[in-house]
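Exercise 7.
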Amino acid sequence: MSTTSRSSGVLAPLFALPGVRHMGALGAPALEFVEFLRRARQSWFQTLPVNPIDEYGSPYSSSSAFAGETLYLDLEDFYREGLLDRADLDAAWFLTSRVDATDSSVPQRDARSERIDYARARASRTPCLQKAFERYRSGRDGAKYRRLEERFRAENEFWLRDFLLFEAASDAYKTRLWSEWPSELRRRESSALDSLARERREFIDYSAFLQLAFDVQWRDFKEACNNRGVRMFGDVPIYVGGASADAWARPELFMIDRDGRVLREAGAPADDFNPDGQPWNSPIYRWSEHFATDFLWWKRRMTKTLERFDMVRLDHFIGFYNYYSFPRGADDGAWERERRWAFESVGACESDYEQGWTPGPQSAFFDAIFSVCPIDSFVAEDLGVMNDGVRALRDRYALPGMNVFQFSFDHFTDASRNPLDSWRANSVGYTGTHDTAPILGWLDDVRKFGGRQFESLNYDAIVRVVRRYARADDVAAETLNSSLGTALQRLAELLRIARPVRRVSPSYTFAPPEIARLRTPILRAVAASPCRLTIFPIQDVLGLLNDARVNYPGVSDGNWTWRLGSNALTDEVAEVLRDVTESSGRAPTGE
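Solution. The predicted structure, written as tokens, is:
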């Protein structure tokens, strides 16, 4: 972890930031969020992967481990560079001054939860992106991008051409499932690739311009964050999608065949919540091939990611020690050969691992990565089934792990102690993650369903620990906020206006007072922990409930759509977070 002193930060997906139509993006609204972090004396802005999202909005099954999601591009920057007109921004970017009840992406006054509309974002922003490209191609304006284009192409040559050809073929055949393309393209025959490059030249140039723009704008954004004393904390998904440029360009690195058919799919085994297990829609790696190339693809991936972030989380760290997979297609014995190599490479036999689990690359992987990347730029997402081997691998490199409030109270009944006191200093403490319910929603569920769905959790014991961090001056404010919200909801229900100028988002529910008043004490409890770094999801900073959840693991539809309301980041909220940060000794020095 690239910090030796105590610090804190906020987790917020870039797509969930407010300020422009339909979904969040780079530019002034994102910098306004960073200004909020600065006012609250936060040192870190953690966000989710910024690679291209899939058809469900997920950034964890991307079509590229290297490219950026172009929906995040700042149209105002194109305007400043002369590539767009003001009318383009009015049509596609700026929020209207009135509340449009037919547009679910327009934030409502006093609403802290909204919904993203990816389809409308793409429909309204794509014409602007195309217009900016046409002006750029004609030689008009765009000096900033033109000045950096040669460097961008040189530094990204190892992935850019394959990605551009992949995008061109995906557009031509209306699918990223390259198993459905003509065989000569599936198998990357040189003549077919040359023909594709000629026939789709304009589309390829357009896609290249968008990636150039993303690279330039992201560098500007990161520099602006750092200049404000805020460091960027990113995320590296362990897997990429089978329908990706990476799998198409280098199929030998994945458990897929030459025609794009997945042979083994990554996932998690069956448990009480998922009796059939969790397939993740991503092929596992042929780690033997990565080993043979000294993990070159991974070295390039990590290096590229650290250009964008000051520190990154290694998603599913457990998978680098051992991983679970599902059969998805018949093969010629490739999986058995890979599995046999895996056990031989670590000097183990199958009885050393739980049934269904296969050894990962372990120390060979990390030795290779840390030969080119600074070791203190990584955090291990060590949640889940942590056996002794996983712990030893993490500790061998002194990698910080993660501690999560919601996972620390299983079978906890002795309120005379505090389980957070046992968190490791060399770790990152969280109230929750993007995969969990907001902390107050979780606690309210424990209150309502404890003893049934939450048999291992004792609501009263949790609350007794949390109340140690309560202060008289924050109880009244939390209760008032909750009571006011409940009253507004009831009034709206009574009036039953078909198209009201809404003050409260109809999908938003307020916490009952007994839960609401625990928001700030929970933040204080996590901030007071021994962890050198603590991260608060923005939903927990605001005290939101389960309608503000970002993702339900193992469920494909309905995720990645929560968005922060425009008026949520008030001075009062910043002051609460600032007080939590300062009182726990996490505020940056020298201010």
